[in-house]
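Hi Y.,

Following your request, here is the sequence exactly as I used it, all 254 residues.
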Amino acid sequence: MKKLLAFVLCLAMVFSFAACGGEKDPAASEAPKAVLKMATNAYFQPYEYYEGDKIIGIDAEIAAAIADKLGMELKIEDMEFDSIITAVQEGSVDFGMAGMTVREDRLEKVDFTTSYANGKQVVIVKENSAITDVEDLFADGATWKAGVQLGTTGDIYATGDLGEDRVTQYNNANNAVLALIAGDVDCVVIDNEPAKALVNANEGLKILEATYADEDYAICVKKGNTDLLNKINAAIDALVEDGTIDTIIAKYIK
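Below is the corresponding structure, written out as tokens. Let me know if you'd prefer a different format.
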């Protein structure tokens, strides 16, 4: 009887340990979130820029809020601005978000969401520049040269208005401003908010009062991907409705 009792107790302990070992932590059993890949060019402060090795800014925070609404994990990939639409077309990323303006030529390649922010293109010059107004660039006989970031609307506007021979393209806005400081170009056409940051960081520069162009920013997705487009639009609507987007923009633009 003693041997039988010991055997029964032993079996009970074995089953008890097995049961304990079979229990799973609810958190550990959760499936990992699907990844939502965003393409950007992180040299466009305050929309996207580096703080240490992390990309932050208006677009980065809005994208994170959108991913959260979709129950996904956001991954940001930094690349040249001119490569963003190609990456979206090829499917290596899910969407592009980099202060992008909706234009007819871009709509031929990708689809755009509803607008989430407004911007305007301005002109940066040296403080002692003979260019005192945007209209000076278009005066008869004017030969002023403009620096732009490759593939941006500033590039598209300036190249279309001034001609390719009067426009120099740079991979990022910082390089365009350095070219202005060095005297390689006479002005830089760029979005107003990055322009403010660049002028604050570099002495001897100013922004002309007149606006070069007004525009709306939106997110681009692969053409025909209506499922993702509708989901992002729904998320944007919700984030506008609850004030999240206004709060994010106010955080970076005082």
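The first strand starts at residue 35 and ends at 40.

Thanks again,
Q.
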